[in-house]
Amino acid sequence: MSSVSPIQIPSRLPLLLTHEGVLLPGSTMRTSVDSARNLQLVRSRLLKGTSLQSTILGVIPNTPDPASDAQDLPPLHRIGTAALAVQVVGSNWPKPHYTLLITGLCRFQIIQVVKEKPYPVAEVEQLDRLEEFPNTCKTREELGELSEQFYKYAVQVIAIRPMRRITHVPGALADEDEDEDNDDIVMLEKKIRTSSMPEQAHKVCVKEIKRLKKMPQSMPEYALTRNYLELMVELPWNKSTTDRLDIRAARVLLDNDHYAMEKLKKRVLEYLAVRQLKNNLKGPILCFVGPPGVGKTSVGRSVAKTLGREFHRIALGGVCDQSDIRGHRRTYVGSMPGRIINGLKTVGVNNPVFLLDEVDKLGKSLQGDPAAALLEVLDPEQNHNFTDHYLNVAFDLSQVLFIATANTTASIPPALLDRMEIIQVPGYTQEEKIEIAHRHLIPKQLEQHGLTPQQIQIPQVTTLDIITRYTREAGVRSLDRKLGAICRAVAVKVAEGQHREAKLDRPDVAEGEGCKEHLLEDGKSDPVSDTTDLALPPEMPILIDFHALKDILGPPMYEMEVSERLSQPGVAIGLAWTPLGGEIMFVEASRMDGEGQLTLTGQLGNVMKESAHLAISWLRSNAKKYHLTNASGSFDLLENTDIHLHFPAGAVTKDGPSAGVTIATCLASLFSGRLVRSDVAMTGEITLRGLVLPVGGIKDKALAAHRAGLKRVIIPQRNEKDLEEIPANVRQDLSFITASCLDEVLNAAFDGGFTVKARPGLLNSKL
């Protein structure tokens, strides 16, 4: 075996004082140069030197000292490492400094410092030459056998670490029993070999691990490559959970977790049934659309629990960068995978339930369109080969069950909407809210506030008062908050009662119970024993009635003001659809002397403004038929007359065609001087000829009319098919009238009809 020649270094070396760690022989380190002495060394030796000897420095570890730039040389360690300057990078901002890339050669010992200014220079003695050690022959004999054994073992692991150099120098081997990252790389390589990733992904990992072994750890790409490989071995390429396909148990679980929502639960059970018959069924792309607070997100959790799958929620509201979906390319600093791949890493299986929350609130920016990036994710024909920019290899998403939620489909791009199966989740009726409150909300609030049913009782009539007088919503979030406020108030009473019971148990208090106050020995009264504090604790359970509601929640927020608003001509009630559910909408009109102008207020959109112009044009053309005149008795309704239409509330933006029939009815009431029925609401688009066209959101609008206590709803005749979706109890409480033209609308909106006989096609039925 050939001997290794020792490394020779100059007898005098310039000293580089660094506080960034200890440089070992054979290792590479980047160090910053910003002190006066080190700056002079770099400028004089490295930037001006031309020989190889001028690039060899003596690196001495030095503790940071605020006075390091002072005239006196700080105390130096006697042992240092001779290093070769491989690279010099300089900058003048924010102040002059350099960054050196240095590689350790061998150790040395300082004999004496021969010069201190402008930078220190020392006479050194090289320590890595074995012949200079004491008892050289004996040392060689002792180390020889150990070195031979180590060399044999090193040859055996050459296949595992083919890029590492087998060194037979004991000192160099010792400098190498300190690199713990090498063991991690070996473990990482073992995970790659034993992983079940596809062949293409495995080839990429093998290539990257070979590159990683060649890189020095100080390179920025080292950490990026290592993070990439760790992600690749952690992804669940072939790991999945087994679905629970018991249809009966799934039905019971869904019914226990969620009241109502029959259409949604039916679709989930259909998926389970088909999944039971066909094991390799691709996951459907479902989209639950409905107002806030109706349980869209919680249904996603229940679906995962029913299937026995992992659940992961991805919030998409406000996302405006496609990299959130597809990930960043690894050429960027701080790159990371997208939310889809990161979610798979989190759950650890390849068939979870992914909830894409608020998909209708995706944004768009210069960084791309995330809605377009979702097209591949949500396409069952493409997502089996989904490629994240960070991974740069395909991942199979076909077994993932994607469930998206949205408040409206209007803001979802058509291409994305086409890839999803839309399931409408409408608002709840009053009866459904009562059941939900007593099945789910009240028990949850009692548990959260440490109360028991023996301490508080909320009758259903009280729950109905909360729903009708203190909340007006399609979901149950506000109802949940009101119940929480009641529980907090009761918790105060219960805590005070326990405190009073504790004081009543005191012997001194019990003796003075009949007195007005208990006197102390010094004649002063004891406020703790005052009779106001000796009041008996409240009787349990505490019953919450309307008077208690008023004390806890304050005066009712929503009183039935419909009859008061319709106490004069020129007012009608319309029905509107919003992402928050259906709402009733008042339309007010007034006339005054003027020049025939029409004024519209209430933050109206262009479509609603056009509906107002259509309504006034139709009334002007039919003024003689209905005997409608202006203030001067002329059939020209706008002659010397201005009309003002207002749509409260003024702070809310409004648009859409469904207010046409309401505007026409409001103006007919204004010019005829007759009152519109106070229990009727209406919706429908109109044409210039007076036809009534169908509109959307009939179920939500009907629920809004039912919440407001109305009795009659006028809808377009072509919307009669939508009445089947309305709950039976709502259909029983409301009288639905279908109309195909404005004549039928006006006859149904006024008591006794509107001057002309109703057409025989008018349908007035109690459904």
Provide a short characterization of the protein structure.
This protein is an alpha/beta fold and about 775 residues long. It has 25 helices and 25 strands. The protein is elongated.
Care to describe what's here?
This protein has 25 helices and 25 strands. The longest helix is centred in the middle third of the chain and has 28 residues. The C terminus is likely disordered. It has 767 residues and is α/β, with parallel strands linked by helices. A hairpin with a 2-residue loop joins strand 16 and strand 17. The strands form 7 sheets. The chain has a 5-stranded mixed beta barrel. It has a 5-stranded parallel sheet with strand order 8-9-12-7-13, with helices on both faces. This is Lon protease homolog 2, peroxisomal. It is found in: Peroxisome matrix. InterPro entries: AAA+_ATPase (IPR003593), ATPase_AAA_core (IPR003959), Lon_bac/euk-typ (IPR004815), Lon_lid (IPR054594), Lon_proteolytic (IPR008269), Lon_Prtase (IPR027065), Lon_prtase_N (IPR003111), Lon_prtase_N_sf (IPR046336). GO terms for molecular function: ATP binding; ATP hydrolysis activity; ATP-dependent peptidase activity; serine-type endopeptidase activity.
